[in-house]
Design goal:
By secondary structure, this protein is α/β, with parallel strands linked by helices. The chain has one domain: Alpha/Beta hydrolase fold, catalytic domain (Rossmann fold, 3-Layer(aba) Sandwich), CATH 3.40.50. Helix content is 32%, strand content 19%. Strands 1-2-3-5-4-6-7-8-9 form a 9-stranded mixed sheet, with helices on both faces. Strand 6, helix 7 and strand 7 form a beta-alpha-beta unit. The chain is globular and about 60 Å long.
């Protein structure tokens, strides 16, 4: 199959108001994520994924065996607030230029430096519009939807870092956003490169690095956590914590207008885009080898999980299943269930989640 994009592994280096509530409602989210992963769009965007990846397998074991190196470069100052300043930094990830928002507290630096909080955002239906204000059309990371999340932790004394991921906003690598369920693995690689570059920041405590992942950012986080021991503790908000097959079934059925019955033929269709991506990798890849849910026994990072019982963008039962596996393998965790339908917490639920995260992180010191 011919593609309009050649050699994705060696790109050139360059790189809520009412309308937002509507844009990111559960129905909208599911429609878009199903379209992104769906079976009815022939994959034409990705071809010849074989240079970097042939040396760096995309399995969990491959990530664990890899060494990550990068360097953070200051780009410019952004508009901050009384309790934190905001800056834009960049770093390299697989020869791609990735940008990251850095919110630094304005309070005096602790003796050992500020703790670090990396925020992994969720799926965006239009990656190039990630971090862009829907009201003004201007760049305003982390965007309207996530406004107030990294800032809440900066106000609590954390240096909060929010990477774009490759292909988002002006970060290089848009091709990778078209790689179906493998996209979160590439984003995990971006986070791992970011962690390797943190020493370039001033006034930080590298012994206290924490992670928060929302939705797809939960999947990104689990993959990342299995490949590094540098994260002291992590929080997952409504995480995608299921096998690729379970994700394909859930989102495939939602998108399928005739999804009342599922059989082998339907599942083959739901996975067709993923299968096409795998065929174009240039090396053998087993889906199960890249699903972090199969490797929970190897996880060494304490987890706190938050999920609203009635939300549908990411099934609540996926967090229950993750908590059960954490218990089975005797991993330290806390799991909080919330009333409501919000995929991203609002109001009192958000306040509780932040407070519980801070308390959980403090327990790990």
């Amino acid at each position: 199959m011919q593609s309009s994009i050649k050699n994705i592994s060696s790109p050139k280096k360059a790189f809520i108001p009412v309308n937002v509530i509507i844009q990111f409602s559960p129905l909208f989210f599911l429609c878009w994520i199903a379209f992104f992963f769906g079976c009815q769009t022939e994959i034409k965007e990705v071809d010849n994924l074989n240079s970097v990846q042939s040396e760096v397998p995309l399995s969990i074991t491959g990530l664990q065996q890899r060494t990550f190196q990068s360097k953070l470069t200051f780009e410019k100052s952004l508009v901050g607030a009384n309790k934190y300043k905001a800056d834009l930094w960049s770093y390299d990830s697989d020869s791609l230029k990735i940008y990251a928002l850095v919110n630094t507290p304005t309070i005096p630096k602790p003796t050992k430096g500020f703790p670090i909080l990396i925020f992994g955002h969720g799926f965006h239906p239009e990656p190039k519009k990630y971090g862009v204000s829907t009201q003004t059309g201007e760049d305003w990371r982390p965007g309207d939807y996530y406004r107030g999340i990294p800032e809440a932790y900066a106000e609590k004394g954390y240096v909060a870092i929010t990477p774009d991921y490759r292909g988002h906003n002006i970060s290089d690598g848009y091709e990778y956003t078209k790689t179906s369920y493998l996209a979160s693995t590439y984003y995990a690689i971006d986070v791992l490169h970011l962690i390797a570059a943190l020493s370039d920041l001033k006034d930080i405590n590298l012994e206290e690095i924490y992670y928060i992942g929302h939705s797809m950012g939960g999947d990104v986080g689990l993959k990342m956590l299995l490949a590094t021991n540098k994260i002291k503790a992590a929080s997952l908000w409504a995480p995608v914590a299921a096998t690729t097959y379970e994700q394909a079934l859930y989102y495939g059925k939602f998108y399928d207008k005739n999804g009342e019955q599922t059989d082998t033929k339907k599942m083959t269709a739901y996975l067709s885009k993923m299968d096409a991506v795998i065929k174009n990798l240039g090396f053998e890849y087993n889906i199960d080898s890249g699903d972090p849910i199969h490797f929970i026994k190897d996880l060494k990072t304490p987890l706190i999980i938050h999920h609203a019982r009635e939300e549908t963008s990411v099934p609540y039962m996926w967090s229950e299943s993750l908590a059960a596996k954490l218990y089975k393998y005797q991993k330290p965790f806390e799991f909080y269930a919330y009333d409501g339908k919000n995929h991203l917490f609002q109001g009192e639920n958000r306040k509780k989640a932040v407070e519980r995260d801070i308390a959980f992180f403090n327990k790990q010191k």
